[in-house]
Design goal:
The chain is of the alpha+beta class and 478 residues long. The chain has helices spanning 5-46, 48-61, 68-83, 114-122, 164-214, 230-278, 287-316, 326-336, 338-343, 363-380, 438-448, 473-476, and strands at 87-91, 97-100, 124-129, 139-147, 153-162, 322-325, 347-351, 358-361, 386-394, 397-405, 453-458, 461-469. The strands form three sheets. A five-stranded antiparallel beta sheet has the order 2-1-5-4-3, with helices on both faces. Helix 1 runs antiparallel to helix 5, helix 6 packs antiparallel against helix 7 (287-316) and helix 10 (363-380) packs antiparallel against helix 11. The two termini are 69 Å apart.
């Protein structure tokens, strides 16, 4: 049987409360018991000196008075006992009761001799006992030695206070404590229930949303969970995660649709012309023309597939960075673009330092970024205009800039340049073979390197600038 978090937490809190109350009750009872006993013993010890002076008469005469004199002595002892709410009696050295303030205490009664072994070393002794039947009930007892004028032990003084008051106090203590504990448990359980509701209701909403999300409802969100705290953060995190996954899923669907569209166009063209040649619709003298179109479309289809494979490989590639000369990579990319630049009759302005600029990254991928940016700039540059490729160092970053002169890119279109299959206005270029993947590859590579790229386009001048981490100087020392 599944145990909910509310039941588990409620059980744990209740158990801890019961244990805490029990421990507190026991500790308080022990504390109060010790305090009560200490108070009783101090009260008994407080009248011990008065009782001893009264008993001197017995000690000095070594015999009990008789008649009226004995009655006066008994009355005096009774007054002393009442002042301390106790009874007192004296014994001889052998433990026989000689004189008592209580009529219930029979003179001549024998006190257990074993008790005196505890008194001898310290001169006085406290205990809670009925003295093995000498007293009618368990009492607080203070025992003190008595000595004669020569310092010899002449007997013992017993001061006894009834322990019944402790029993009454205990009954009252536990009844009050039990009532307080019940009220405490009641209030604690109500508070715990309210707290559990504040916790479990949002968690249940998150759980229901997660189940629906796992069932394919990507539009589901956790509603009604507000405020601060871990649970509210969890709900917001879930909603953010769901939003990102839905966006990714929509992007994936759009990506697949774009792929289908881009593949369908050359494949339809190839199929139409091949069928036309096979069924004789296209006359033999025109077959070479249409075969050339089929060849061009095949190459176009091959480039698209290759670009898609490059993207997949870049995204799954493990980054093994190394130090390399960024200037050399820029020169290599520029040489690779020489023919296309010449075909568009562009003037190249290369601002590349002669000294090596060592950076940290994957050389082939950074070179690919530079090549793609140069290819894009060449494609959209106005014929007979200029093309700029430059490098500058700013602190720990090297900044590569590719700039061309052509039509201005609208501000609202700049954030879309690096999306998959996004194509800007083709009227700005004579090249109709783009797939909108070149800049997406650039963004993917730089994201893998944790670098940034910026785009500006004003008054027909468009510039792409990206950063590369400078190499650590220690690694370049011989």
């Amino acid at each position: 049987m599944r145990k909910s978090i509310s039941v588990a937490l409620f059980s744990m809190v209740s158990t801890l409360l019961v244990l805490g109350i029990a421990v507190m009750g026991c500790s308080e009872w022990v504390l109060f018991g010790r305090y009560f006993a200490q108070e009783r013993y101090e009260a008994l010890d407080g009248v011990a000196d008065v009782a001893r002076r009264t008993a001197d008469y017995v000690v000095q005469n070594a015999s009990l008075p008789e008649g009226e004199e004995l009655e006066v002595l008994n009355a005096r002892l009774e007054i002393i006992g009442e002042s301390a709410e106790a009874c007192l009696f004296f014994t001889d050295p052998e433990g026989r009761v000689m004189l008592s303030s209580s009529s219930s205490q029979v003179v001549g009664t024998q006190v257990p001799l074993a008790l005196f072994d505890e008194v001898e070393p310290q001169g006085s002794y406290h205990l809670l006992s009925n003295l093995e039947g000498v007293l009618a009930e368990k009492s607080y007892v203070s025992v003190s030695q008595m000595r004669d004028a020569d310092g010899q032990r002449s007997g013992y003084l017993f001061l006894c206070s009834s322990g019944a008051r402790l029993e009454d106090f205990r009954d009252e203590f536990f009844s009050n404590f039990f009532l307080s504990a019940c009220l405490m448990l009641l209030f604690a359980n109500v508070a715990c229930g309210l707290l559990m509701r504040r916790i479990t209701v949002p968690l249940q909403k998150i759980s229901d949303a997660a189940q629906r999300f796992g069932g394919g409802d990507l539009a589901v969100r956790v509603e009604g969970v507000t405020g601060e705290g871990e649970i509210a953060d969890l709900a917001r995190t879930f909603n953010t995660m769901a939003e990102n996954i839905q966006t990714t899923d929509n992007s994936r669907g759009q990506f697949m649709g774009n792929i289908a569209h881009e593949l369908r166009t050359p494949m339809t063209t190839i199929k139409g012309f091949v069928d036309g040649i096979l069924d004789g619709t296209i006359p033999p003298e025109k077959e070479r023309k249409y075969l050339q179109i089929i060849s061009d479309e095949s190459r176009r289809l091959s480039r698209l597939v290759r670009r898609m494979l490059d993207i997949s490989q870049i995204q799954s590639q493990e980054m093994k960075k190394e130090d390399f000369d960024l200037c050399e990579s820029m020169r290599l990319a520029l040489l690779s673009m020489e023919q296309k630049i010449t075909d568009r009759e562009l003037d190249v302005e290369a601002d590349i330092p002669e000294e090596p600029v060592m950076v940290e990254g994957v050389n082939d991928l950074i070179t690919q970024v530079i090549y793609n940016l140069l290819e894009n700039a060449t494609k959209f540059a106005a014929p007979h205009s200029s093309l700029y490729l430059g490098l500058a160092v700013h602190g720990e970053k090297a900044v590569v800039t590719v700039r061309n002169v052509g039509q201005t890119i609208p501000a609202e279109e700049i954030p879309l340049l690096f999306e998959r299959f996004h194509k800007s206005d083709k009227s700005r270029s004579e090249d109709k073979d783009g797939y909108g993947l070149g800049l997406y590859v650039v963004k993917t590579i730089l994201s893998q390197h944790k670098e940034q790229i910026t785009v500006t386009s004003e008054n027909g001048v468009t510039a792409f600038s990206f950063t590369v981490q400078m190499a650590h100087p220690m690694r370049n020392e011989p």
